[in-house]
Amino acid sequence: MGMSNTMSETNIRLAATEDRFSSDPEVSYTLAAPYYYDEALFRSEQSRVFAQSWRFACHRTEIPHTGDYVTLGLDNESILIIRDKDETIRAFYNVCPHRASQLVKPGSSGNKPSGISCPYHSWTFNHDGTLRGASRCERVKNFNKEDFSLTPVRVEELCGFIFISLNIDAPSLGAQAVGLDDLLNRECTGLEDYSLVARSDFDVKTNWKVIIDNFIENYHLTLSGPEHKKFADLVSSEEHESKIRTHDVWTEFISPAGRPDNSAFQWTEPRNLGGGNDFITIHLFPDMGFVLFPGVNALSLFYTRPTGPETCTLVTSYYAPTTELDEATKAGVHYFSDELSPEDIELCEGVQRGLRSRAYHQGRLMVDAERTGLSEHGVHAFHAWIRSFMLD
Ligand code: FES
Ligand SMILES: [Fe+2]
Q1: Phi/psi class of residue 55: alpha, beta or left (left: φ > 0; alpha: ψ in -120 to 50)?
Q2: 362 Cα: distance to centroid of ligand 2 (angstroms)
Q3: In the chain, where the domains are located
Q4: Are domains 55-165 and 178-390 of this chain identical in fold?
Q5: Which ligand 1 atom minimizes the distance to the CA of 103?
Q6: Which ligand has its closest atom nearest to the C-alpha of 228?
Q7: For ligand 1, is residue 102 a contact (CB within 6 Å)?
Q8: Beta strands in 75-120 (DSSP E)
Q9: How many whole angstroms from 121 Cα to the centroid of ligand 2?
Q10: pLDDT of 4 strictly over 50
Q11: Mind listing the pLDDT tens digit for each residue in 136-178?
Q12: Which of 7, 145, 273, 296 shows the greatest Cβ crowding within 10 Å of its Cβ?
């Protein structure tokens, strides 16, 4: 490809008149195929989408003590998220202001009880990012410790979940995702105190958006593989009862529960988290979701960590008010992580292999006028958001 694959030319090609994406979901086609495999588009997406958005890092109960930290890779950066004393959670670029050593290993987590010490020349930083000590600095002309704090990253908490953004101008997550905290708090009382009770990571051979497209739409739910067909009894079969509603940067799918003795997993009592017992999936732009199953006393999270244009890690994790899981909750976790998700991944990898075909450029979104739960208008909203970042 060489020079013909520069970002601007790729963008011009995608914005060209043969593009059949439409602002009207009812006649629109999907994102064009190169969005799912093009190297230049992937790099551009890192800075235009991920670095501009709010990104899920962890729940606050995953870093409960002063000095507990996790890291998150984001747009060629490593970000350190650490708990300061008095409940404050902070985030910094994981880079030493002296000569650029990374302070902790990317991907690591742990505890730094007395502050962060650089592995190279042992400059030490307080949990608030200020420089505490630098060996021999008193001998250096005009050296002011105040000039060498760690560079902060924005942090915001939503129902106990910690999000970070590299965009210092981005509207707050609360202002962007209006109503999301209300929905989560309505369904899960005391979510700030939930803890991580299970987690599965999957290496997936697809662009991250193939996974998210699949997460948002329920059109495939009873039409694809055997694990999906089990949904038939898990959720209500009354089509008019389920709806997908799109909001700014988030989308909700709600369907009443079906039978307790369904073939996906057995439950006896309705969900007991303080809200209802509906099957609910929520997509939060760009790449995360929440899931609530009938009879399951845990909130599932679903998010990706892109690792290349055609690869990502998919994480399914579960947060609950207690670590003692009842049988229905264990069965629901097992069904979602060990049976349904592997089948979804197989479906998605089949899509990824097809996306490079010269016979495919864009597909027709199956949107109905009533915007039912089986309509693909949620995927349309997602694609419109992606385009708004990529084609501005
Ligand atoms: S690079 Fe961190 S102390 Fe020198
Ligand atoms: Fe699925």
Answers
A1: beta
A2: 21
A3: 55-165, 178-390
A4: no
A5: 2
A6: 2
A7: no
A8: 77-83, 89-93, 109-111, 116-117
A9: 50
A10: no
A11: 999 999 999 999 999 999 999 999 999 999 999 989 999 999 9
A12: 296
DSSP 337: I
Q: Is 119 in the pocket of ligand 1 (CB under 6 A)?
A: no
Q: What spacing in Å lies between the alpha carbon of 71 and ligand 2's midpoint? A: 29
Yes or no: say if 299 and 273 are a contact pair by the CB < 8 Å rule. yes
- Per residue in 263-312, pLDDT tens? 999 999 999 999 999 999 999 999 999 999 999 999 999 999 999 999 99
| Assigned token pair, 109 | 């987590």
Q: CATH number for the 55-165 domain, one of 2.102.10.10, 2.40.128.110, 2.40.37.10, 2.30.30.100?
A: 2.102.10.10
152: preceding bond cis by omega (within 30 degrees): no
In this model, does residue 370 exceed pLDDT 70? yes
CATH superfamily of 178-390: Naphthalene 1,2-dioxygenase Alpha Subunit; Chain A, domain 1 (3.90.380.10)
Mean pLDDT over each residue of the chain, to the nearest integer: 94
